[in-house]
């Protein structure tokens, strides 16, 4: 059996998958994000419970909102207790087996390439647009790995000047410490901020979307601007990575109008001869990240066994 864990800022989910990566069962518990030892204990207990359910020691892969620096220490803006910790070694010691760690967004992309919406694509870019804005790149079925493990952190690239000037956006302070990051405008909280910027009364993204579908002028204006900004930035991502397909995840990926409008919005930001790639929804939805973590755990256990 293969276990995938998705550690978020509020909850930890563990899912058990069989040899065909079919979901067997899953459950959640709150994330003890302020105490590192409590977090390790929670992971250990969940895996022990999974071993009891399956009557075996399953492979383990863990997705979390952060990355491992080049010293092997974890860095996360959402779960502060893991910062500076050797979480891979500590978890392996606690569980008595090999454990694979992966950025949660990259785990999502891996899942969609391995039997998901991007199956069979040589070059697939995944973008999660939710409370944050980040992604991952798979080439020939494998996650692209970079020197410092920060590839595809494109939510922390500066907003294009053409958008800032066109819509008179202020340069917003990002939680990462930088100024004017794309995430502050294109993630879910950024879309809600646009409602305020354009002097509307919409207090949530669902209310905005409902108003747009009712053809309320202010809602249409905000969504037109958002789609234009998204199109501009996705065009830049296409020029950087030239993917065969872009798979969307995260809460805003449930807005169906994005899929019908985004390709056309991208097109005006290309020079001649460039065409937008297909943009599709994730096949496994909210479960894609935990499934990708399980895949990483399975692959890691296999590679460890081969080396030994």
UniProtKB/TrEMBL annotation:
Protein origin, superkingdom: Bacteria
Protein name: N-acetylglucosamine kinase
UniProt entry tagged with the keyword 4Fe-4S: no
InterPro entries in the cross-refs: ATPase_NBD (IPR043129), ROK (IPR000600)
Gene3D superfamilies: 3.30.420.40
The keyword Protein biosynthesis belongs to this UniProt entry's keyword annotation: no
Gene, per the UniProt record: nagK
Assigned EC number: 2.7.1.59
Coiled coil: none
Alphabetized UniProt keyword annotations: ATP-binding, Carbohydrate metabolism, Kinase, Metal-binding, Nucleotide-binding, Transferase, Zinc
GO molecular function, one term: ATP binding
Pfam families in alphabetical order: ROK
Reactions accelerated catalytically: N-acetyl-D-glucosamine + ATP = N-acetyl-D-glucosamine 6-phosphate + ADP + H(+)
